[in-house]
Design a protein that fits this description.
Layout: H1 2-21, H2 29-35, H3 45-54, H4 68-87
Protein backbone atom coordinates (compact mmCIF):
# COMPACT_ATOMS: atom_id res chain seq x y z
CA UNK A 1 0.00 0.00 0.00
CA UNK A 2 2.86 2.39 0.83
CA UNK A 3 4.48 1.69 -2.53
CA UNK A 4 1.22 2.59 -4.24
CA UNK A 5 0.96 5.85 -2.29
CA UNK A 6 4.58 6.79 -2.99
CA UNK A 7 4.12 6.07 -6.70
CA UNK A 8 0.97 8.20 -6.81
CA UNK A 9 2.71 11.05 -4.97
CA UNK A 10 5.69 10.88 -7.35
CA UNK A 11 3.40 10.91 -10.37
CA UNK A 12 1.59 13.98 -9.05
CA UNK A 13 4.69 15.90 -7.96
CA UNK A 14 6.98 15.17 -10.94
CA UNK A 15 5.06 17.25 -13.55
CA UNK A 16 4.85 20.16 -11.13
CA UNK A 17 8.57 20.05 -10.43
CA UNK A 18 9.42 19.78 -14.12
CA UNK A 19 7.15 22.67 -15.02
CA UNK A 20 8.52 24.86 -12.25
CA UNK A 21 12.14 24.19 -13.18
CA UNK A 22 11.78 24.50 -16.95
CA UNK A 23 13.17 27.47 -18.84
CA UNK A 24 10.66 30.16 -19.64
CA UNK A 25 10.43 31.14 -23.30
CA UNK A 26 10.71 34.83 -23.90
CA UNK A 27 8.11 36.47 -26.08
CA UNK A 28 9.32 37.71 -29.47
CA UNK A 29 10.07 41.40 -29.78
CA UNK A 30 7.00 41.92 -31.97
CA UNK A 31 4.72 40.67 -29.21
CA UNK A 32 6.41 42.87 -26.65
CA UNK A 33 5.91 45.93 -28.83
CA UNK A 34 2.18 45.28 -29.00
CA UNK A 35 1.80 45.03 -25.23
CA UNK A 36 3.86 48.14 -24.45
CA UNK A 37 1.95 51.28 -23.50
CA UNK A 38 1.75 53.87 -26.26
CA UNK A 39 4.25 56.64 -25.69
CA UNK A 40 2.49 59.31 -27.75
CA UNK A 41 -0.59 59.58 -25.51
CA UNK A 42 -0.81 62.93 -23.73
CA UNK A 43 -2.34 63.44 -20.34
CA UNK A 44 -4.75 66.37 -20.32
CA UNK A 45 -4.77 68.83 -17.44
CA UNK A 46 -8.20 67.53 -16.39
CA UNK A 47 -6.87 63.97 -16.26
CA UNK A 48 -3.82 65.09 -14.29
CA UNK A 49 -6.05 66.92 -11.80
CA UNK A 50 -8.07 63.73 -11.24
CA UNK A 51 -4.86 61.70 -10.85
CA UNK A 52 -3.50 64.22 -8.33
CA UNK A 53 -6.74 64.24 -6.34
CA UNK A 54 -6.75 60.45 -6.10
CA UNK A 55 -3.01 60.14 -5.43
CA UNK A 56 -3.00 61.76 -1.99
CA UNK A 57 -1.65 60.03 1.13
CA UNK A 58 -4.05 59.32 3.94
CA UNK A 59 -3.11 61.53 6.85
CA UNK A 60 -4.37 60.20 10.17
CA UNK A 61 -3.14 59.52 13.70
CA UNK A 62 -2.06 55.98 12.77
CA UNK A 63 0.34 57.26 10.13
CA UNK A 64 3.76 57.37 11.82
CA UNK A 65 5.47 59.67 9.33
CA UNK A 66 2.97 62.49 9.91
CA UNK A 67 2.73 64.42 13.15
CA UNK A 68 -0.63 64.33 14.98
CA UNK A 69 -1.06 68.07 14.44
CA UNK A 70 -0.66 67.69 10.68
CA UNK A 71 -3.10 64.78 10.70
CA UNK A 72 -5.74 66.83 12.52
CA UNK A 73 -5.23 69.74 10.12
CA UNK A 74 -5.62 67.38 7.16
CA UNK A 75 -8.80 65.87 8.63
CA UNK A 76 -10.26 69.35 9.15
CA UNK A 77 -9.36 70.33 5.59
CA UNK A 78 -10.88 67.12 4.20
CA UNK A 79 -14.07 67.68 6.21
CA UNK A 80 -14.30 71.26 4.92
CA UNK A 81 -13.81 70.09 1.33
CA UNK A 82 -16.45 67.40 1.77
CA UNK A 83 -18.91 69.90 3.19
CA UNK A 84 -18.30 72.34 0.35
CA UNK A 85 -18.72 69.64 -2.29
CA UNK A 86 -22.00 68.49 -0.67
CA UNK A 87 -23.28 72.05 -0.66
CA UNK A 88 -22.83 72.31 -4.42
Amino acid sequence: MKLKQLTLAALLIAPLALAACSKKEEAPAADQAQTAAPVDEKVTPEQQAVIDSIDQPVLDEKNTDVSPEEAKEAEALAAAEAASSEAQ
